[in-house]
Amino acid sequence: MIDIVNDRTVLKGQHFYHGSLNGRTSGRRSDHELTHAMPLASPFYSSTFLVRKEGHPLMATATVVRDLSPAQAVALERAALCAQIADENKARDVLVLDMRRLTPLYDFLILATAQGKRQMHAIAEEIDERLKQLGDQRKSLEGYQACRWIVQDYGDIVVHLFDSLSRDYYRLEELWADAPRIDWQRI
């Protein structure tokens, strides 16, 4: 995963790539996968970059979401909490996507991959329990019995838990490629 540390630095693992605000590189500590970073003007993010890894298309990444209504700020915190719960329960490929510009149905989409039925159930149940403690009510639940793809709808956030095969088959992160990725670990 690529994270924006601030408005000038892109972090990939322990390798750093520095980009100046005019899109030119100002230094490089490691010759790892990143080959280009440039700032991107956005009304939604205080620091947004287009980042290209060798052999991969450009991806938009962001850390700080701005211009949030109070309800959206709460939804973002809950989305980050769901991602944290999935990560703590050893889910892989945990993503939070900002869907505000793409659909009026919900604000944030959480994607995670679990290793099996027990892990999927544990993650889904813990997310539900923690959000209930915060006063949030789940609106619907799909796929719990089949355990290939569990969807939990909380209104302004939607959580998708996949098994590996379903995640590879449906590739929702590619379907919603225009959705900026939120660095949920920094929220």
Please describe what this structure looks like.
The chain is of the alpha+beta class and 187 residues long. It contains 4 helices and 13 strands. The strands form 2 sheets. A 9-stranded mixed β-sheet has the order 5-6-7-13-8-9-12-11-10. The chain has a 4-stranded antiparallel β-sheet with strand order 1-2-3-4, with no helix packed on it. A hairpin with a 4-residue loop joins β1 (2-4) and β2 (9-12). α1 (70-88) runs antiparallel to α2.
Which series of helices and strands comes N to C? EEEEEEEHEEHEEEHHE
The assembly state of the depicted protein chains is single chain
Distance between the termini: 16 Å
Backbone CA Rg:
17 Å
Strand order, largest beta sheet: 5-6-7-13-8-9-12-11-10
Q: What secondary-structure arrangement, pairings included, does this model have?
A:
Blueprint: E1 2-4, E2 9-12, E3 15-19, E4 25-28, E5 34-39, E6 48-53, E7 59-62, H1 70-88, E8 92-98, E9 108-113, H2 117-133, E10 140-142, E11 149-153, E12 157-162, H3 164-170, H4 172-175, E13 181-182
Parallel strand pairs: 7-13, 9-12
Antiparallel strand pairs: 1-2, 2-3, 3-4, 5-6, 6-7, 8-9, 8-13, 10-11, 11-12
Brief overview, please?
By secondary structure, this protein is of the alpha+beta class.
Question: Which features characterize this protein?
Answer:
187 residues, alpha+beta, 4 helices, 13 strands
